[in-house]
Amino acid sequence: MSARDWIDKDFYRELGVSSDAGDADIKKAYRKLARELHPDANPGDTQAEARFKAVSEAYGVLGDPDKRKQYDESRRLFGSGGLGGGGLGGGGFDFGDLFSGGAQQQTSGGFGGISDILGGLFRRGTGGGPTEARPKRGADVETEVRIDFMEAVRGATVPLRLSAPAKCGTCHGSGAKPGTTPRTCASCGGVGLVSRSQGAFSFSEPCRDCRGTGRIIDDPCPECAGAGVSTKTRTLTVRIPAGVADEAKIRLAEQGEPGQQGGHAGDLYVRVHVTPHPVFGRTGADLTVTVPVTFPELALGTTLTVPTLDGQVSLKVPPGTSTGRVLRVRGKGIAKRDGTTGDLLVTLQVAVPANMDDEAKAALEAYVKATEKHDPRPDLTAMLKRDGR
């Protein structure tokens, strides 16, 4: 994308967020739109596909702190409503106005700040003159995958189908029709910038003939229309490591958006969502399970059969155990990367019967009578007496 295209586009509007939105809000908006507009969710809908590409492009800039800062500064100085009000390189913009009184007031930093922006946007070399366009790394991309609880514990290999911008397979990223090659722009000599002088100052601005790319494509590629990038659907195999946690991210190097000018592709980050298990929970590498027990089992003690990931184990419950107590079964949790294994944490919870027959009710009433001198709340009773209640 040329510098002018970058500045003229309103990436904040594409994502539906304000220009002062935080990183978390921008990511949340992108993830919501990406799910709604994904080609898999809208088969055959070209408008949704175009919006999906635009949203991905916007997040590629706003999701990168350095690119976002550069984008904001460039729009403030050169974008719509900025100096001259005509956009970068437009008819209403005149670099000669940079040193007028009004321009100095708007920039508040004079020529130094503007030079920094020009250097970042248009790749001005440190020696002061324009240089060849350097390779640019592609933007990182984020997607999501859902797995079940046991897949997260054991590890899994998951196929991932993606529809995203990728290097055009027809022109291999050159943008030119196969059998032809782009030619160097004669106006700028291939650097993408043209210079002009005004008094003691020399200014550089994007070349209007090549739109800042340094190349002229006379015969564009029919697949990508000269962009060098096209939307493709591809299937990747993602290895989910054993013990992965919910909301964890897995990085696939150079599987993101393709680079420009021969630069490396960005990375693909896969966010993992784990479906909860109906029996087991998880705390780090420890498994958790709640086991219903009866009051006599806690009062008199018993041996329980408790489920694990591999089968069952026997668990001894000491007499006089309180409800809610957590017992630990060592080595029956989730395997860690260092070769050790977490534990199984068993919470004992008294199950109160909803209905009882006459025999059970009579036995319970006899138990109450036999233990009526036992006050299970002595501390509370003493406190109330001290308060005069």
UniProtKB/TrEMBL annotation:
* Cofactor needs: Zn(2+)
Q: Which InterPro entries match?
A: DnaJ, DnaJ_C, DnaJ_domain, HSP40/DnaJ_pept-bd, HSP_DnaJ_Cys-rich_dom, HSP_DnaJ_Cys-rich_dom_sf, J_dom_sf
* Annotated cofactor note: Binds 2 Zn(2+) ions per monomer.
The CR-type domain covers 155-233
Q: Please give an example of a GO cellular component term from this record.
A: cytoplasm
Q: Which Pfam families match?
A: DnaJ, DnaJ_C, DnaJ_CXXCXGXG
Task: Please give the CDD domains that the UniProt record associates with this protein.
Answer: DnaJ, DnaJ_C, DnaJ_zf
Identify the residues that the record assigns to the J domain, covering every copy.
10-75
Positions with a binding annotation for Zn(2+) 1: 168, 171, 221, 224
Task: Write down the superkingdom of origin.
Answer: Bacteria
User: What keywords does the record list, in alphabetical order?
Assistant: Chaperone, Cytoplasm, DNA replication, Metal-binding, Repeat, Stress response, Zinc, Zinc-finger
Q: Which PROSITE patterns match?
A: DNAJ_2, ZF_CR
Q: What is its main location?
A: cytoplasm
Where Zn(2+) 2 binds, per the record, is at 185, 188, 207, 210
> Which segments carry the CXXCXGXG motif repeats?
168-175, 185-192, 207-214, 221-228
GO biological processes: DNA replication; protein refolding; response to heat
Subunit info here reads: Homodimer.
Described by its record, this protein's role is as follows: Participates actively in the response to hyperosmotic and heat shock by preventing the aggregation of stress-denatured proteins and by disaggregating proteins, also in an autonomous, DnaK-independent fashion. Unfolded proteins bind initially to DnaJ; upon interaction with the DnaJ-bound protein, DnaK hydrolyzes its bound ATP, resulting in the formation of a stable complex. GrpE releases ADP from DnaK; ATP binding to DnaK triggers the release of the substrate protein, thus completing the reaction cycle.
Q: NCBIfam families attached here?
A: DnaJ_bact, PRK10767.1
| PANTHER family, per the entry | CHAPERONE PROTEIN DNAJ 1, DNAJ HOMOLOG 1, MITOCHONDRIAL-RELATED
Q: What is this protein called?
A: Chaperone protein DnaJ
